[in-house]
What does this fold into?
Amino acid sequence: MTTDRERHQAEQNEAQAMQPKARLMYARRIADGFQIAMEDAQGITHLLAVKRADEPGLNMLGEDDRSRVVAAVLAAHRPDSNHDAA
It folds into this structure.
């Protein structure tokens, strides 16, 4: 059984997770995945090489941007994919 404090903490964590910490600036296809640039809330640009759809660094992005990158990565891993999905 969860306490009120645990339930409150879970609600706070969920609300915080829904707020994007960074926005996607671009996604560029590289040999074995994608290079993405994202800008965080302080205006700092981060570069990330994304080779898998479950890359932990993608958690900085909002849900829409993260979904776009994940879809591009998954499309790039399809055997018939020769194009830039982002």
Summary: The first strand starts at residue 22 and ends at 30. The mean pLDDT is 85. Strands lie at 22-30, 33-40, 45-50. The longest helix spans residues 4-18.
